[in-house]
Amino acid sequence: MADGDDLFPGFESLWIDGPSGRWFARAGGREDAAPLLLLHGFPQSHAMWHRLAPALARTHRVIALDLKGYGWSAAPDSEGGAAYAKAQVGAEIVAVMERLGHVRFGLAGHDRGGRVAYRLALDTPGRVERLALLDIVPTFVQWERIEANPGMNPHWPFLARAAPEPEREIGRDPDGYFEDLLRQWSAAKDLSAFDPRALRLYAQAWNVPERIHAMCEDYRAGGAEGADRAADRADLAAGRTLPMPVLLLASRDYLDRDKPEPALDVWRRSFAPKAEGVSIASGHFMAEETPEATLAALEAFFAR
Fold it and tell me: What CATH number is given to the structural domain containing 153?
């Protein structure tokens, strides 16, 4: 049994040759069912979906993919975030899904996976049937908030610093750094919400220097002057919005806590004017902290 197989009973382990190398995914559900792609967040992997994926696979062909540089997917070298710009990663994921036989699909993304998801949906709207975003605001708004309150989300500017400064600092104690973030962003401020098997999978990846570098490159692409913010600004200037149904799941104890504007309002005034929202009584890791409420919202949305 491969690591993590017991978290996804009945799922296949897929290795897909695609742009920038091989991608890893778990896939479950009937092959003729409507495809639903799940994209994880930082600093995790596909394993974050383990409490939701089996239930979602009752009605969909579920593909839980490791993002480029995370989990077991390839982590190509990069400078200045070039290989990890969300527009590029999204285009590569479209190619991966085509190789699996899926031209159109439902899409749900948490955290960094949410940033890839909304960029993919803005750039190639014909690919996405329905879009669920878990616990994010657009990148341009995130930076406006950080610039207005420099103490907010300090990991964003830290990880976006030029290489190799953050890589070296994290490399001194990767477990300490990443586990501390999991604690900070969870409602309980500890690791109790995380299955030890999932934590082992996360740690396998975040202890690899090339993957630490890839995660920093992900944040460099989303940095204050990075490609992701520039792409947001270009779409805002063009008046481009998401045409498909959009669901935002917002955590009360992380995303919307003490914020000047609810996340749903942010999406409605920017890229998703018709978005619907569900507030989840959770910390940031809602798929693991509050799986019942998160699953109920996703099932209702993707069943339509």
Answer: 3.40.50.1820
